Amino acid sequence: MITHPDKVLFPDDGITKGELVSYYDAVAPVMLPHISGRPATLERYPSGIGQKGFWQKNVAKSSPGWLAKVEVPKKGGSVRYPLVSDVRALRWAANLNTITLHVWSSRVPALQHPDLCVFDLDPAGEEPDALRAAALGVRELLEELELPSFVKTTGSKGFHVVVPLDGEAAAGDVARFAHAAATRLVERHPKRLTLEFYKADRGGRILVDIGRNGFGATYAAAYSVRAKPGAPVSAPCTWQELERKEVSPRSFGLRSMPARIAAVGDLWSDLPHRACSLRTAMERLGLPDKELRYDPRRGR
Asked: Which of 60, 86, 278, 285 has the fewest CB atoms in 10 Å of its CB?
C-alpha cells in the first residue's frame, strides 16, 4: 500500500509520490537487473525536494521482514543495507519518499569484488562541449586499454562512464586501476581535466571523480530519478547520441523516460555480457599483474 500518494515531491512540476511510484513500477523491468544484489543507500525527501532530505544506509528495525538485507561490518559495529532486488522492494523504497537509489559497484555475496568500474565526470558548471569531449576522451583511453565502456547521464551535471568487470579484481585493485587511468587522462588533457576534489582547486576543469570505486562507495543507479527540478533521470544513452550532441546530463526525465524505454529498450542490456578482466589494462598502466588479488573461491 502506498501512503499519501498525492503528496507533492517536486513542487515546481507537480509530481507526486504516486507518480514517482508509478515511474519506478514502469522502469522496474530494465532497472532491477542493474541494481539487484547491490547494497543500496536511500536518498529520501519526506517533505519533497523543496525541503532538506537525508540519506539512509541502515535499514530500520521496522522494515518489512520480506525485505532482503545485507549486514556489512564497520568500525564499532555494522550497517544493515537494503537490497532492492524486486518490484516490491522498489515500491517500498519509493513509498519512503526515496527519490534516488545510490548503489554499490559490487553485489552480494562478492562485495569485495566489484563488477563495475565507474568514472564520474563532474564539471564545475554548464560546459556541454567540454563535458562531451571529456566523456569521449575516457572512452578513447578505455578502447586503447581494450576495455568496453558504457555511458549514462547522471541526471545532474555530468556523465558516468562504466566498465563492466568479471569480478576477478578486488575492490582495492579496481580503485588503483581507476586512479591510474584517471591520472593518464589528466596528463593528456591538463587544461580540461583534473583530479582535484575541491572546486576551488579545479580552475574550471572537469573532475574525473574515481571515488565511486572505493569499498562501500555508491553511484546513482541507472534509471534512478534525481532530486532536482524536472525530476531528471540518470539514464543510459549511446556513444553515438553523445557524439551527435543529442544528449546532455539532464536530457531525460521521470515523465519522458518510459516512452524512451519503449522506443530504445535498455541500452545497458548487453553490459553484463561484456564483463572483462583488468589484468592487461593494469599492466599497460604500469600496475603489475602480480599485485592483483583474486578471489580464492574462484580458484584464481
From this structure: 60
Give tens-digit pLDDT for 52-73. Answer: 999 999 998 889 999 999 999 9
- C-alpha 71/C-alpha 74 separation (Å) is 10
- Alpha helix (H) ranges present in the chain? 17-35, 87-95, 128-144, 171-188, 239-243, 257-264, 279-284
Identity at 28, one-letter amino acid code: A
Residue type, 38: R
CA distance 206 to 194: 6
Q: What is the pTM of this model?
A: 0.94
How confident is the prediction for the chain on average, in pLDDT?
94
Question: Buried b / exposed e across 181-212, counting CB within 10 Å, b at 16+?
Answer: bbebbbeebeebbbbeeeeeebeebbbbbbeb
Which grid cell sits at 105?
A: 559497484
Dist CA 116 CA 48 (whole Å): 31
CB neighbour class for 270 (10 Å; exposed up to 12, middle 13-18, buried from 19): exposed
Residue 297 has pLDDT above 80, yes or no: no
Q: Which three three-digit cell numbers place residue 33?
A: 537487473
**Contact (CB, 8 A) for 201 and 223:** no
> Which stretches within 165-289 are classed as H helix?
171-188, 239-243, 257-264, 279-284
pLDDT for 3 equals 96
- Confidence at 288, pLDDT banded by 50, 70, 90: low
The pLDDT tens digits of the residues spanning 82-102 come to 999 999 999 999 999 999 999
Dihedral sign computed on CA atoms, order 276, 242, 40, 212: positive
